[in-house]
Design a protein that fits this description.
Elements (H helix, E strand, L loop, with lengths): L9 E6 L10 H8 L3 E5 H4 L10 E5 L4 H12 L3 E6 L9 H11 L4 E5 L4 H7 L2 E2 L6 E4 L7 H13 L4 E4 L9 H12 L5 E6 L7 E6 L14 E5 L5 E5 L2 E6 L11
Parallel strand pairs: 1-4, 1-5, 2-3, 2-4, 6-13, 7-8
Antiparallel strand pairs: 8-11, 9-10, 9-11, 12-13
Helix pairs in contact: 3-4, 6-7
Length: 260
């Protein structure tokens, strides 16, 4: 077993984006292709089946993140290891827990974090330009963050009038957190504020709904764990081509300086 300062292997923490291989970066694909071991949630490994043939593949499940991180670190002393994460590994992904476990161990290994397209970017790209300036991303999952902390953060970001992206908006185990988020939004934003509901962004069976904060309940049945919800800010507006609703625009401010 190598000492804390010796390592002949390496560890890549890889963001895979929304799922389709065309949205995985070339660097991410190269890291996976060059790995001896590939570790990840079984769902995230599905798009990589052709790349990971013949490799040592360790499939895991939700709730096993700490064990997955420790296994990746142990193997990376002697082998090239890629641990994969949906979206961007550093945004509600595997990067933080892997680095925390590594820090706690005192080991020294070569680590590379490879970015991927996170759900906020994927969803925004399908509904215009809702995130063209400052925005916030809040997860409504209270598995690791207490609900009172989530509510305080929601109230703070909605109060400044910027667009807010909601991750993990609703599940069977916590069906009411989304309604709480809408309550906080309505304290600070007008009922006409545009809202985008994007399900399976940049994946098969993608769906998009453009609605408003005042009418969100009419579309709430579409909100689940495969959905990203974008609530516009004070300057956001619904984007139309002729009479057809296409998405949301949040002006960046060019109209204050230029005539167009």
């Amino acid at each position: 077993m190598p000492s804390h300062t010796e390592s002949r292997g390496s560890l890549a923490i890889v963001g895979l984006g929304p799922g389709r291989t065309e949205y995985i970066t070339p660097r991410a694909l190269k890291a996976v292709a060059g790995a001896d071991y590939v570790i990840g949630n079984a769902l995230y490994l599905e798009p990589l089946e052709q790349i990971i043939k013949g490799k040592q593949v360790i499939r895991s499940s939700m709730g096993k993140e700490v064990e997955r991180a420790q296994q990746a670190i142990d193997l990376a002393h002697e082998h090239r290891v890629a641990i994969v994460s949906g979206g961007d590994a550093g945004v509600y992904g595997m990067a933080s827990i892997v680095l925390e476990v590594l820090e706690h161990s005192g080991d020294e290994i070569e680590v590379e974090i490879i970015p991927g397209v996170t759900a906020a970017n994927a969803a925004a790209s399908r509904v215009g330009s809702p995130l063209s300036g400052d925005f916030a991303v809040i997860s409504l999952s209270d598995l690791l963050t207490p609900l009172d902390v989530i509510e305080a953060r929601l109230d703070a970001v909605f109060s400044v009038g910027i667009p807010v992206v909601l991750y993990n908006p609703k599940s069977r185990g916590r069906p009411h957190n989304f309604a709480l988020a809408i309550e906080h939004a309505r304290k600070h934003l007008e009922p006409t504020t545009p809202v985008a509901i994007v399900k399976n962004a940049l994946r098969d069976e993608e769906e998009q709904i453009i609605t408003t904060l005042g009418e969100i309940e009419k579309s709430e049945q579409a909100v689940d764990m495969h959905t990203t919800v974008i609530i516009g800010g004070r300057e956001s507006r619904i984007w139309r081509m002729k009479d057809n609703v296409k998405g949301i625009i949040t002006p960046r401010g060019y109209h204050h300086k230029y005539v167009y």
